[in-house]
Amino acid sequence: MEMNLNAQEKKAGFLQRVKAFLSKLKDGVTKRIRNIQKFGKDDPRRIIHSIKVGFSLTLVSMLYYVRPLYNSFGVSGMWAILTVVVVSEFTVGGTLSKGLNRGFATLIAGALGVGAVHLARFCGHKGEPIVLGILVFSLGAAATFSRFFPRIKQRYDYGALIFILTFTMVAVSGYRTDEILVMAYQRISTILIGGTICILVSIFVCPVWAGEDLHKMIANNINKLANYLEGFEGEYFALPEKISKETNSCVREYKSILTSKSTEDTLANLARWEPGHGRFRLRHPWKNYMKIAGLVRQCAFHFEILNGYILSDVKAPEDFISKIQEPCSIMSREAGEALKAIANSIKTMNNDSVCVNAHIENSKKAIENVKFAFKSSSTETEKDLLEFIPGVTMASILVEIVNSVEKISEAVEEFFGLAHFKETLDPKLSPELEQQHHHHLIHRGSVKPVLEGDNEEEYSSSSHVLVIVHDEQPPTTNEKTNLGAEKTRDNVV
Amino acid sequence: MEMNLNAQEKKAGFLQRVKAFLSKLKDGVTKRIRNIQKFGKDDPRRIIHSIKVGFSLTLVSMLYYVRPLYNSFGVSGMWAILTVVVVSEFTVGGTLSKGLNRGFATLIAGALGVGAVHLARFCGHKGEPIVLGILVFSLGAAATFSRFFPRIKQRYDYGALIFILTFTMVAVSGYRTDEILVMAYQRISTILIGGTICILVSIFVCPVWAGEDLHKMIANNINKLANYLEGFEGEYFALPEKISKETNSCVREYKSILTSKSTEDTLANLARWEPGHGRFRLRHPWKNYMKIAGLVRQCAFHFEILNGYILSDVKAPEDFISKIQEPCSIMSREAGEALKAIANSIKTMNNDSVCVNAHIENSKKAIENVKFAFKSSSTETEKDLLEFIPGVTMASILVEIVNSVEKISEAVEEFFGLAHFKETLDPKLSPELEQQHHHHLIHRGSVKPVLEGDNEEEYSSSSHVLVIVHDEQPPTTNEKTNLGAEKTRDNVV
After folding, report:
1. CB-CB under 8 Å, A141 with B50
2. What is the 8-class DSSP label of residue B451?
3. What angle, 0 to 180 degrees and rounded to 10, lies between the N-to-C axes of helices B92-121 and B180-204?
């Protein structure tokens, strides 16, 4: 009886454990699936790209499935598969760069390989492998060495790799087959088929342009700077207990800019391979994005230093702080607004220097006010210099930031001069823009551009666009960016 | 007669032009060759790597040249060539990561492919290509999507690529051949042969370890910071006409640190694939290098801001500057010496915290002196705060730099705790170190370690190591680093 009970208990325990394990497994799997779903939703282009690759693979498999195609290409069809797998890159620029590199390198190396085989045949049966070996060794080593040169590495690295591969394959298999020309023809034609499929799919099925990504990335980075500057006032001048970690993390977005150089370089490199698209013409000044990005990063370095003063407990005496609070706030806020306007004008591809310059002028005026506050503090109080240091340093870094924002604005100005964007809006560019465009048409006429120098006091209020744009409805904060975009395009449509 | 002269003139002109062209061509070619030679000399490992690749290629060609080998592998030999070309990377870690990824991905995808072909055969002749097509599409798309996940991208990107490639090839060619198992066997064995050749050559013929590169890179970066701090005094306090552009460029080495994150990440990623080598054991804390590198970069950000004050024309009043010159100079110099000692202890893999801490203490004392100078200035003079700003900001950024150096030292300390370097010197590690080692043995005994807290005044002199190490010969500046290395290893040999 007791044993029976014991066995029953054991059984129940086992079942419970199995149940627990199953529910745990289920939780884990659903969690993982949710993660994957979220990852796909974050950038649906990833899912589209995966489907595109699957589609290209299925398409190229036809070389095997369809009898007439298989008869003409035979097992060489696998070169087409290989090409599709390797050349399919996320961006159009990546696919084009790999495809063209692969195509030209195969052609050149194939021709050289055939030449090498013919040359080696002059040397008799015994000499042939020796000559071929020497040629493979020396060309392979030379091409490998060439891959170290920065210029070749940047643009033709893949081409050099394929050159080594094709030359070695043709030269070496030429030793064993007499139909080398047929083989070379089959290989080259299948590689061309694979490459063409990839390039066509990547350009015509939901293309992802590296150039557009770069463009958006620069605009977003400038926006991140603006967010930091807008949050600065609340963080530095807030009472200690009010600084929450949450706002901190939101304002710290700019950190990604500090190390974004390699991503930018890659995108700019790929963008140069892309044909004209949207409003990016051929010979679009891709290099100039790097200049702007460099200045943006320089500005982010200043934030990194400023951060030390926000987080520090040692602050200047309160009466001094309260004196510099207003001009410093205006300085950071106006610089932030200028950056917002710059980011917007890049996003909408419309130069809006009037608005940008007005904000920069305002923040420069605030610099004068800070200086005045310094002057009055030093004459009024008898306190020692030491106590002022944190406040003074903070303010002078802020001044440097304003200068840095001015430099960014100049670089963007120069960029617009070079980029020659079309003067009309292309609503196809992005659905988001189209929506703004539509929105604009609804209350067209109610939005008036403002003249420079007109009511400067109003500029220094925090809701800048709302003041400039004399709109009928009081817009909510969510609409702010949209309205900004509207305003900048007002003289265009 | 005249016509004859004219013709002669023309001929002479033509000859001259040909000569000019030839000499120009010769100049261009020699210039280019010199450039290439210089490029190779800068890092001879590049030449060695090229020769290694050529050698591997020649070795793998034997699969074609040698009759018995060709009989057993046939045209599958080209997979070995392909593997050698693609897997041969500059560093051991790169080769291993690609080789292992390729090997495992081929095995898994090959097995799945064979399974897919058998499954499809159940569905009859008409259903076969449809089932295969669906499988290729879905697995291809899924594997492509997986490549977007950062974790997979970082370590298994190449494996996922090869998985897609192999699975598609096996599944698709299985439709046309019945000898799929033989084919799969030949392919996998040739890929293993190619991969093994690459890995053996890369490990046993003049290996380039990514881990060692990372280690040296971190030490060099810290050295670059030290150079900047040592040059700072001369640049900031120099008379304007004395600032030459040349010293500027020499001191500006640190700029490369600002954007070196991606290189460091890549090296750390590759280093994790490498087996234990030299004094880097298995499970060496590669991740901790990233922490140190982050702090080093943070310090470089401060330099970037400090630079603005060096180059600016607006400086504080001279009497104020002369007051803070000495403590500021000591601050930067001592922080620089501390960094030099840290870099040296990383290079020689010997913790020398006594020396580092002494320098940091000295620079901290100098901070107090700067503060004292501030205090006295504010009581003495009646000048306004505004004029002091540039000097005050410069000094307080310098204080931040000292704090940042202390953080670096702490991180390095922690790293040494984790790294468990062997306590004896391994003279095989690098010829440079061996030389230092030898040098040390010559006047062994003449070098005495100094006790902490002992003669602190002497520490603040600029030639710190010379004071600490009571050497017989007055060493030249060139030997300084060597002597530093010697000192740090004194209690070890």
Report:
1. yes
2. P
3. 170
Cα(A394)–Cα(A416) distance, rounded to whole angstroms?
Answer: 33
For chain B, say whether A175 makes contact (Cβ under 8 Å). yes
DSSP state of B449: P
- Better pLDDT: B188 or A252: B188
Residues A366-409: tens digit of each pLDDT: 888 888 887 777 665 555 667 778 888 888 889 889 999 999 99
- Put simply, whether A164 touches B (Cβ < 8 Å) is yes
Which 18-47 residues of chain A touch chain B by CB within 8 A? 39-40, 46-47
Q: Does B288 touch chain A (CB under 8 A)?
A: no
Question: Whole-angstrom Cα distance, residue B436 to residue B421?
Answer: 19
What is the identity of the amino acid at B245?
A: K
Distance set, CA B224 to CA A206, B253, B299 (Å): 47, 6, 11
* Mean model confidence pLDDT for chain A: 79
CA distance to A163, B82, B142, B315, per residue, from B62 (Å): 20, 14, 38, 72
C-alpha A122/C-alpha B406 separation (Å) is 71
pLDDT for the residue A421 = 66
- Per-residue pLDDT tens over the stretch B84-94: 999 999 999 99
One-character DSSP codes across B170-184: HHHHHTT-S-HHHHH
- Cα of first residue to Cα of last residue in chain A, in angstroms, is 92
Apex CA A473: angle with CA A469 and CA A476, to 5°? 85
Asked if ipTM goes beyond 0.90, one says no
Residues B210 and B91: their CA atoms lie apart, in Å, by 6
pLDDT at B481: 33
Q: How confident is the model at residue A493, as a pLDDT?
A: 22
Quote the pTM value.
0.77
Q: How far is residue B170's CA from residue B179's CA, in Å, rounded to a whole number?
A: 11
- C-alpha B111/C-alpha A330 separation (Å) is 67
CA distance to partner chain A, nearest, from residue B166 (Å): 9
